[in-house]
């Protein structure tokens, strides 16, 4: 823990659509000096905006394990925002988990998939495999099982209004959804408070 008695919080993927919202939510709850934003480039416009709030930036590339151990030095709690790289996702997540363990991270939060253990969605397998890696790591874990982002449905709103129906192949199926901002707030709260969900 840091010398000012505030845990150091690390957010991966901080320039992404979810990551930047998590940083904004953390800034409402904890001092900027306790937040570290993982980025792939210090020159990214969003990275510069984050740094302008007094948040420390560190290079952390899921595909470059050499960047991760240094990035996680002195970190108490880490939020891994799931990689969007299909095919490489699990190996990238493994790189992050191994580096976090080696760096002595005290709490690991992960943005998994809602019903990852029962979902027929193809991408649930990557999340289940990541959850298994986390279980094997021995790290204290918070699983943030996100539903489908509301924003993903916005492209279908105008056609639905035009046709008077939502057209799809789900039949009577239903889905649970929320905005990225809602999921970002829950991630920030769990990271700031240090909740540990013993679901593994």
TrEMBL record:
It holds the Pfam family NAD_binding_10. Residues 13-153 form the NAD(P)-binding domain. The keyword Oxidoreductase applies. Keywords: Oxidoreductase. GO terms for molecular function: NAD(P)H dehydrogenase (quinone) activity. InterPro entries: NAD(P)-bd_dom, NAD(P)-bd_dom_sf, NmrA-type_oxidoreductase. The keyword Transmembrane does not apply. Its EC number is 1.6.5.2. PANTHER family: NMRA-LIKE DOMAIN-CONTAINING PROTEIN (PTHR47129:SF1), QUINONE OXIDOREDUCTASE 2 (PTHR47129). This is NAD(P)H dehydrogenase (Quinone). The gene is qorB_2.
């Amino acid at each position: 823990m840091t010398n000012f008695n505030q845990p150091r919080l690390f957010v991966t993927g901080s320039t992404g659509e979810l990551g930047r919202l998590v940083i904004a939510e953390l800034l409402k709850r904890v001092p900027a000096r306790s937040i570290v934003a993982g980025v792939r480039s210090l020159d990214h416009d969003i990275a510069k905006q984050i740094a302008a709030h007094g948040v420390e930036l560190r290079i952390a590339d899921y595909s470059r394990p050499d960047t991760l151990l240094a990035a996680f030095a002195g970190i108490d709690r880490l939020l891994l925002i799931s990689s969007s790289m299909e095919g490489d996702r699990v190996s990238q997540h493994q790189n992050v988990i191994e580096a976090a363990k080696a760096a002595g991270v005290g709490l690991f939060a992960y943005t998994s998939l809602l019903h990852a253990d029962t979902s027929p969605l193809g991408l649930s397998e990557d999340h289940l495999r990541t959850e298994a890696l986390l279980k094997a790591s021995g790290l204290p874990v918070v699983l943030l099982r996100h539903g489908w982002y509301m924003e993903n449905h916005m492209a279908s709103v105008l056609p639905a209004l035009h046709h008077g129906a939502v057209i799809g192949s789900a039949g009577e199926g239903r889905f649970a959804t929320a905005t990225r901002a809602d999921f970002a707030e829950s991630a920030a709260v769990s990271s700031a408070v240090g909740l540990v969900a013993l679901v593994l």
